[in-house]
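Checklist before submission:
- one chain only
- standard amino acids only
- sequence pasted in full

Submission:
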Amino acid sequence: MTAPRRPLALITGASQGIGAATARLLAPRYDLVLGGRDEKRLEALASELTEAGPVAVRTVAVELTDDDALATALDGIDRLDALVHSAGVGELGTVAETTARTWRHQFDVNVVAVAETTRLLLPALRAAGADTGADVVLVNSGSGITARAGWGSYAASKFALRAFGDALRAEESGHGIRVTSVHPGRVDTAMQERVVAHEGGEYDGSRFLRPESVGAAILAALTATRDAHLTEIVVRPQG
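Returned file contents:
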């Protein structure tokens, strides 16, 4: 008797932080494609996951803003049940001190690369959507809801990512694809350490969300029954 096919999920930014935590949570349910720039970290995570249970893991080390390399890396994926966009950058600064180069880089990584990755994988997502349903999850930010002083270019990119999610949701619902925007507050990650250093504060990771807590919200969106669609999830640190 043939074993049932395990669904396949692709996670960007999987080498660390929220992406890696999400991969660990999804491994019992999904086979995985782990995307990121750090090949050694991706391979280490893949080894950890395969040793822990019966999961098939493929790693894809690629720079998401390199359109040709991205297309090559994703070629051959003909069915995809879940796409989790966890990769992103956060460069802070006031409007007065933020250069055009920073604005372009932030939008390239946080918006354009997300849109292009999604576009390339839409046929694979639609193939799953027409059968059992498919999901796209966008790891956004509280800055995608409220912009604060000193966060202008980052927040603008996250507002744009939210708009992308809204448009994609409206366009693809007829193909069986759900789109969820997850808006975490501050998370205990390497990026958060850089943010606190920029602000001149002393880092205390216990004040922030754990990456696993955001991963749990992502898992909730993916595993919701198909009659339900968690369009937006806001997660804040307790206290």
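Reviewer check: The two ends are 51 Å apart (CA to CA).
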